[in-house]
Amino acid sequence: MALISYAPPSGAARGRILIGAGLALLPWLGFLADTLPPAEAAAWVALDVLEAAALFTAGSRLLRHDPRHRAPAAAAAVLLLADACVDVATSPPGPALAFAVAMAVCAELPLAALCMAAAARPTPRFVRRGVRVRRPGGRCAGTSPR
Fold it and tell me: Around 104, how many Cα atoms within 13 Å sit in the side-chain half-sphere?
């Protein structure tokens, strides 16, 4: 009997996933704009534009090992959670609610969890392009204790 193990994606893989998710939202924005009433479309498109921007920013910074990936990743997580909650709460019973739950369970919540994991962990490199990042304990990376 083989045990199934799970290894979380590396920083580069996380970055590619986040960039891909941000880019995948672009056609979705057009669909929302075409199918929803104008007032609703404006709200949902604005939310999804913010999500896409946060996902793309966090992903591109992760790929560059930029320690500033954490804020956009946290913002993306909050936006995705809000999107899932509001979408499920405002969907009418029936197929629309089933679709909202499926989107939340299969896309928004797992992506939010990935973003939270990215926001909680710094990149493996502590020094990038002259930016010094404080490690726990107060020392800067690359300095020796005195």
Answer: 17
